[in-house]
Design a protein that fits this description.
The complex is a heterohexamer, with three copies of chain A and three copies of chain B. By secondary structure, chain A is an all-alpha fold. In chain A, helix 6 packs across helix 7 and helix 9 runs parallel beside helix 15. The longest helix of chain A has 40 residues. Chain A starts with a helix and ends in a 14-residue tail after the last helix. In chain A, 73% of the residues are buried. Chain B is of the alpha+beta class. In chain B, the strands form two sheets. Chain B has a four-stranded antiparallel β-sheet with strand order 2-5-1-6, with helices on one face. In chain B, helix 1 packs antiparallel against helix 2. The radius of gyration of chain B is 17 Å and the shape is elongated. The chains are: A mainly alpha, B alpha+beta. At the D-F interface, loops of D face strand 3 of F. Strand 2 of chain B pairs antiparallel with strand 2 of chain F. Bound molecules: adenosine-5'-diphosphate (3 copies). One adenosine-5'-diphosphate sits at the interface of chains B and F. One adenosine-5'-diphosphate (ADP) sits at the interface of chains F and E.
């Protein structure tokens, strides 16, 4: 400990040592180079200085980076959550297929985002797309320098003082999440290959465009649209793409009777589904608080609390709503409800007070139940409720930011204008509505176009009736998930 | 009385049940079974190795009926379970000597 | 990196900037306001000062906060662990019910602790309960200020320099844990609604009272009673409440023969149970080391090690004990054993040496096996062993602190007096015994009272015989956990 | 926040306070004691100094420690991943046995590494083993002091500034991983007791010797052999031990036909296997980035990215390779592929560029598929592919470091010499090949010797034919994993 | 010889087994089945949609016995499996032409 | 026609199937069952308590054959399923009145 203390006293005495560090670091900013030289005149003792000085200088970067990376790891872990929610909500005969999709979606995302997506989303460019540093995240960059000191082609991320690879990795896990949302919605009938190719397009093109508009310095960013952690960027984008996929695929065999009756097709494991939601809730503590992209203690604590309260409130409100409508508390609905609360609080988490998060959560839980009923009524067959959760509540959460925003709740909230209910009128709500609408149009159109072209160019994107009945596991993979169990499958 | 056993494809169970209900059959017992026959099994892959699954999932439906109902029941099942492809299954008819309803102790046709 | 270095040199030159930050932060302490002004005279260069100074000033708070929050996330994740241990140890026909209970218990806890529990536990008050800042954690508070600088109504938490919401969130996940312990003990027969209401009472009243006595500045705190991470506060409180519940409910149908014979009722998935215990062990690294509530490296490393060694030792000692008594190594018992070790080390983890933790672990593993046998003999039907694990070992661990405490093992240990085996006589052991006894009386009495009143006011707290036989999943939720699997259930 | 700011201004004014802290801390380095005294002359204000100064002085240690500990927790969590991959890939009738093995392996590792392994591996000693501070990690040690200031018997770890227990715990979770690799390879036929005893030997002797050679300052370390996070130290060592075990046990009944035909023996739950791999991928973000053992932001971000890209690339390349060879995408193979990428990047993760990690990942995915076929052809019956994953790719990754190393990619890379493909010739590749060969000989020989002696001394290490057919769960544990499910088991 | 098949409620299996043991029946074979009959199925809820589960879990107990034991066995099963509610199940009696014990090759009553 | 039911040990299924294929039996139906008999059950342990599992896993193989094939089939099964230990299982032979192949509507021996 003492040596660190000494470090602090003596840190400025060894500018050459500092330069050495600068040379070694691939991203050392050259701008402030004179400062240590000036400082060097005051401190006497020479020993241990290089390491100590470096150590202190690195502390903020290091702390920000470990926070961002740990948060990113948690978000990565959400892939497991999605995989389990989706497979749990589908039938045993499609389990391998769904798990495989959820697995490969992150692998494909990693490559697609490295090769193109990151540059398209965060590269300096025009109002719609990034144009510089497009491929392999190899544009000029002197991160972790921030603000005006930042010199590179990824200006949209110059507010966070972490290394470029930390920015890339954190953004990658978000991109993967958007792609994985689609997986559940199109489950139990889409061809494996079609989904893999869609993921490439989603993470390589659709998501980066939507993201550039909002987080990449594009048009919506300039209009004051806010989305702290991605109710729109991640969840609505995923949701619109999912909706397009569902429409192009049509419902599963047996889901809707000829008379229009809705037939439930129960998932094969509520254990999987429940594990999945717990893992997602856990991962969301990386998703939302991590979106500070800095070790900003006050904001992190605030965001984690609003996130949690919204999730808890939505769990209960969805449970109660379903209980009243159906007569019994339905676990599947409460699980969807929990996710709905998390999705809804994702945009406003840093901008609203804890009591507001409670209200947002309660509303999200009600909305998701009604949305599930609604989508079933209009014959949108979504095996896992991805549209009700991510689309409906992605939109709701984005709007809710415009209603409840309060710039004083934590340091990170300063960017917002007061919401409608806090007397801000349309100042913040206006851009939010604009953003919801624009993203809807852009993403839905791009997705429909993709599915349409896919259908034309390939043998169709849906498996045959026989394959669907006998299960995708056998037909797509020649495999079965539970060979030692006696299964009971009738549809 | 007779006992009719039908081995059918799993996804045909609902149709068979409906077909039987329509002619007033109100009870039946159903089992998960695996069948081996002309319908070929398939090859599965597991971590790089292939293996043959030659027992295929089937449903066995058991219905006890008065002797005179047999032709109608058989005909109904054949119609409902038919796809025309290998593996549609078989119907077996056995003699049934006695039936007892546990709840009431009724016997014979009364108990069906 | 260089800009940070410059920061350090120049930090003091911009007191106004600092004041700006102070204005923005909702909890900035006003006390030390003059210091920066004084300092401002020495440093020359003006550039970058505000952000840099803030950044450095925030580092300790930030680091403490991210540690506390990450630890809290790990503790949150224990909900999954409990859900899986409990559902794995119960039958397939009750899986939805148990998962649902474990899910809703944290949602209810979140709301109940926000609305009332936190204030009751940590608000300034009398020897028994908190009286200030009761509702919605909205009392006056200038966290992260600590010690004498702290001005607010939650003095009991003024020793940790993290923001109020970090304190709230960290304490919330502990409260949730106490409530979830009960879930397993009353499984397979309690009405869903009765359990939900109990959870409200548990997290809103019972736990905060117990907690106030110990961690909230109440009577036991003043007597020198110590419980680092909650062997008593969390586990015994949960355990006593569970015991009361079991007594009021009675054993499951078929558990005890008319001749007094104990019939095992095997759980439906050792996979679930094993995942659950791994997740709990993992989460415990948030539970115990996180209870430093500060990034105190030496203590964290020490606590993690004692925690792990106790868990490992208890796993082995329970395995061996059961092996000797039953002739074969029994996984279920070893899983309980692992948890027993974790529960037992929870109170003393920061106060005992690593070798002591080894001994405590070994004893915990033996105790849990004997406790399982004991509770079965006295017809306390606890499907998951919650009493043997949390109650028996919560008590044991609390006492063990009084036996093995060594104030020199790590910085956090300084609060303890030497234990009996370290020559401290009854100095520490005395208060520990006192605490165990008082908590037993208070919590058991409150819980019994609750169950008693519940029974009177409602249609009973236990499902009907038919519902119990056919399963709570169908009767309570109209649902089944594994609809694609052929189940074999005879009881 | 302000108080921290004041801290910074005034930190040097209270040297006595610092000494107090020094006295309290069991490992405070005494060397730099004069520095604060000197510094004390410049700063005026006296208030709050002690805590503030301590706080700042502790920051680097604290940050390094929380990073190392969190990384270690993630690595600990990999035990769950291994448990699920292995049990998922085995049959339902052996599930309890495999889960139990994976559970007990970490418990035994914890004790064995505490009692002996750590000292043997990291204690100062000769070229082959440690000789000082052998037992209970109780050698002299003044960590977190580093470099020349370090005074103690664990010099090989003097480069990381974290407390001794952090070093111990971090190294322990690695040791546990090496042991758990063997578990899967010998599954479904080894006697439980034989495996437990092997684990003791593995973690107490084999792993520490291999580890001392490389990370403990032994012969290979002196030759310039590099292995950042353990492709060789952990994975190859585990892999060679596994290979020896497989050879001594022979294949499972029914695996190879009399005609030499390979019969697949499908695992019982692809859900378990997929969860397992996700958990491992998650845990690997502790394994590789954590091996910085310091909060070095640039290196951490770099290592996390190379790790992830290699995993993603290997997932895809293994999927495609298997698809081309078998006609369908095979989930089991892709899961193995993902792990292969992770294992291969483990040694070079800090030393190679992101594009290189992509290439390494692609190759690893191809290698693992070919290795699975190869081992099956030579009748090495490895139920989970441990040899193809950990041995083949552990070796490949270690060599790949010698091919792709680039000392400039991140601060942590400075230790490497340029690889063959970067114009470094054999400078780095030479030592790598040497290390692979030496470890192969040492570990394989020790393992074979152990199994051989075990066989002689005991009643054999393999269960009887009847036990193998009816399942180890019943025969070894009198237990069944899924008693409520109708199982279908014919082999 | 006769073969008696009893469809009973799952939780009655233990009682039936005990009742049969008491009259010296030492062997039986048991199957998990699903039954459809007068006992109504129930409605389950899944993520907001309802669906009818009309096949209920039942146990089928199969016992091969000498012809003369039939009345006793039937009576025993009726008593043991009776609850008086719908769905108690049925007993079916068939003729059994031959029995072989695989272990010994014994045939007929010897083999039972 | 006759229906032959064989209760065998699970791991003998492959052998039985092979033995029957060799004499031209091309179809059969297989069920998972639990058996109770002379072969003693075993004691399992669960979290410290013991309990007896007395229903052991068995496989039931059902084959419908022309009456004249019965002796050959029985002999084959006995040989293939024999281990000589308790629990090897039993073979039951019933009369089978009618068979219908659903795919074609064929009846009787044609349908086998
Ligand atoms: N001889 C038989 N005995 C018992 N079951 C049979 C027999 N032959 C066929 N089956 C059952 O009937 C099912 C369908 O028979 P299969 O020969 O595949 O097709 P198909 O009936 O269309 O000719 C089989 O899967 C099997 O369950
Ligand atoms: N005709 C039948 N053929 C075969 N099984 C039947 C028949 N009728 C009833 N069963 C079986 O008997 C069970 C109980 O019959 P059910 O009509 O529900 O009640 P109960 O026997 O009390 O009148 C059913 O679940 C079904 O398995
Ligand atoms: N009387 C019976 N009725 C129906 N099944 C029987 C009867 N006796 C035996 N079984 C079946 O045959 C199996 C083997 O019988 P068991 O008495 O254990 O051995 P063995 O046939 O070698 O004497 C039993 O598990 C059971 O499934």
């Amino acid at each position: 400990m003492l040596c660190l203390l000494a470090t602090l006293v003596l840190f400025a005495s060894s500018p050459t040592a500092v330069s050495a560090e600068e040379a070694k670091s691939p991203a050392a900013p050259g701008v402030a180079a004179s400062a240590p030289a000036e400082a060097a005149t005051t401190a006497p003792a020479p020993a241990f200085t290089k390491e100590m000085a470096d150590s202190i200088a690195n502390q903020k970067i290091a702390m920000d980076t470990i926070w961002v990376m740990i948060a990113a790891f948690l978000v990565f872990f959400m892939n497991l959550g999605f995989g389990l929610v989706e497979s749990g909500f589908c039938r045993a005969k499609n389990t391998v297929n769904i798990l495989f999709k959820n697995f490969v979606v992150f692998a494909v995302s990693s490559i697609a985002f490295l090769v193109l997506g990151f540059g398209l989303m965060f590269g300096d460019g025009n109002w719609l797309i990034g144009l510089k540093g497009l491929f392999f995240a190899t544009g000029a960059d002197n991160s972790p320098a921030t603000g005006d000191v930042y010199q590179g082609v990824y200006h949209a991320l110059n507010w966070t003082g972490v290394p470029l690879w930390a920015k890339f990795f954190f953004q990658l896990v978000f991109a993967g999440t958007a792609a994985t949302i689609v997986s559940g919605a199109v489950a139990e009938r889409i061809k494996f290959k079609a989904f893999v190719i869609f993921t490439l397009f989603m993470v390589g093109v659709i998501y980066p465009i939507g993201g550039h508009l909002i987080w990449g310095g594009g048009w919506l960013a300039s209009k004051g649209f806010l989305d702290f952690a991605g109710s729109t960027v991640v969840h609505s984008i995923g949701g619109w793409a999912a909706l397009a996929g569902i429409i192009m695929l049509g419902p599963r065999i047996g889901k809707y009777g000829p008379d229009g009756k809705v037939h439930a097709i129960p998932g094969h494991s509520m254990t999987s589904a429940a594990i999945g939601v717990f893992v997602l809730w856990f991962g969301w503590f990386g998703f939302n608080p991590g979106s500070t992209m800095a070790a900003d203690g006050l904001s992190i604590a605030h965001v984690a609390t609003t996130t949690n309260i919204a999730a808890a409130a939505a769990t209960l409100s969805s449970m109660i709503t379903a209980w009243m409508l159906l007569g019994k508390p339905d676990l599947g609905m409460a699980l969807n409800g929990c996710l709905a609360g998390l999705v809804a609080i994702t945009a406003p988490c840093a901008f609203v007070s804890v009591p507001s998060s409670l209200i947002i959560g309660i509303l999200a839980g009600i909305i998701v139940v009604l949305a599930v009923f609604f989508f079933d009524r209009i014959r949108i067959d979504d095996p896992v409720g991805a549209t009700a959760v991510h689309l409906a509540n992605g939109v709701f959460g984005t709007i809710a930011l415009g209603l409840f925003a309060d710039p004083t709740v934590c340091p990170a909230a300063a960017a917002a204008k007061p919401g409608l209910f806090l007397g801000g009128g349309m100042a913040q709500l206006g851009p939010q509505i604009l953003g919801v609408a624009l993203i809807a149009v852009v993403v839905f159109a791009l997705s429909m176009a993709f599915w349409f072209v896919s259908k034309l160019l390939s043998n169709g994107i849906r498996v045959s009736e026989e394959e669907e009945i006998e299960g995708l596991d056998y037909h797509e993979h020649g495999n079965s998930a539970y060979p030692n169990f006696q299964l009971v499958e009738r549809r | 009385m007779k006992k009719i056993e039908a081995i059918v494809k799993p996804f045909k169970l609902e149709d068979v049940k409906k077909a039987l209900s329509e002619i007033g059959i109100t009870g039946m017992t159903v089992l998960e079974v695996k069948g081996f026959g002309r319908q070929k099994g398939h090859t599965e892959i597991y971590r790089g190795a292939e293996y043959v699954v030659d027992f295929l999932p089937k449903i066995k439906v058991e219905v006890a009926v008065p002797a005179e109902s047999v032709p109608a029941v058989v005909e109904r099942i054949v119609t409902a379970a038919h796809t025309g492809k290998f593996g549609d299954g078989k119907i077996f008819v056995y003699d049934l000597e006695e039936v007892v309803r546990i709840r009431t102790g009724e016997r014979g046709k009364e108990a069906l």
